[in-house]
Structures are given as C-alpha cells and as structure tokens.
Predict the 3D structure of the following.
Amino acid sequence: MTGTRRIVGVIGGSGVDRVFDEGRRTSHRVATPWGAPSAPVEEGHVGDLTVLFLPRHGVGHTIPPHRVNYRANIDALKSLGADSIVTVSSVGSLKADLPPGTFVVPDQFVDFTKSRPTTFFDGGRVYHVSLADPFCPELTERALAAGAAAGQSFASRKTYVCVEGPRFSTRAESNFLRGFADVIGMTLVPEVTLARERGMCYVCLAMVTDFDVWADRPVEAKDIVETMGKNVERMQTVLRGLLPRLPGPKKCECETALESAGL
C-alpha cells in the first residue's frame, strides 16, 4: 500500500491522554448509527501527527467492559479520519514469566465474550472478514521497535484471551485458560474485529497488572490500580516514541480487508 498515515486513534484509560503535545486541543461529540461513543473524542498532536484520544470506559471510568459501545467507538474514530488505532489495555498474566509490570504486544486472541455485538454487518450484505492474523503486522513491528528504543521492551508473540467481565476468573477458569493463552483481559474483543471490518490498522499495547487467580492469590481491583499507577508513565514514554513512527507509506493490507470478505 502507498497511502500515508495522518490521523491515529488512541484508545485507553486514565493518564494516556497526557501523551499529547502542549497546545490547543479540540473535543468532538460524534453521533454514529450505533449510538454515542464512550466519551467525546479529544484531538491533539504529537509532533506533526494528529492524534484522536478516546477513553474506552468513559470519563471517570464509568462504563464496565461488557457495556462499552465498541461499534460506536470504532466508527467515531473512523469518521474523524483515523486509519490506525493504538490501544492501551491492562491485562492479567496467565504465565509465571510475565509478572506484573511486563508490557505485552499480543499477536493472537481467543474470544470468550458472551453477549457483545461483534460486527458492523448485522444484515443486508454478508461479510466474513479474515482474522487469521488479527493485529496489524506493521504497527506491531513499530510498537516493538518503539518500546526497545525507549528501554521498555515488550513481550511479543503472545495470545490474549478476552472474557466477558466485569467479574474476575474462578480458579478453575484461570487454570483452564492458561493452557492456551498468555494474558487475560476484558476489552480486546470486539474492538480488534471491528477495526478490521473498518479497514483500520490495530495494535494492542497491554500492561500486565497482576497474576490471574491461577497463582493462588485472588485478584483485587486495588492491586491492579496500584500497578497501573506505577507503570502509566512508562507506557506514555512508549506511546510518545511510537506515534511519530506511524506516518509514512502503508505496506500492510488492513485497509483492504473487506475486498475479499463479501459474499
């Protein structure tokens, strides 16, 4: 592909919005066919790059993961011109070698959600989008390079299992899931699948906040918040290194995902 990235969407939580350069910011209230996104979209800049920030769980973290309007969020960013999405997510670890504080860039996922709308195509023409490789390989490569350059290396080639939430796992579930996944979270799906349907590049920067309950210690929300607070500045450093790397020729095939998906 030969296009140029000019606008990038960032979906994340508290603190991530501070990645913007100093200067004027614009707030966009967007209406979509699927309702309103989680919050107004904030527009700012990192160097010469226009960045759109959307808090996934709303202002003040008021929306639980199973109630996030993922379709509206992705469609809002697309309508404002974003062709790439970088997300920041907290995850639990299912493996002893991924302790709290580890940064992970997954390359596969397993979906254990139950009740979320997972597609833009609910009727009319049918599309079956390929998700054999669900994350943009180009964004993944650049994220790994940005992390290494910032001294904040990411564990790669890992599998993210997405569960419904908002509750945490039982011990039996945790031990079952760790048989085929490395980290566990509640927000990746359907965000990543909707991005592909919209022809948008997508990468997830995951921050391990805890060992899941397989490690014989029940997960507590206060521990997650504490770990996030300790690591948010590290993630900001990675984001500020990654975002300026995104403009330029697109060599991936994410934007043409629908060309071979229709029936």
Observations:
- Strands lie at 7-12, 26-28, 41-46, 49-55, 84-93, 103-112, 154-163, 183-185, 201-211.
- The first helix runs from residue 70 to 79.
- Residues 7-260 form a domain with the Rossmann fold fold (CATH 3.40.50.1580).
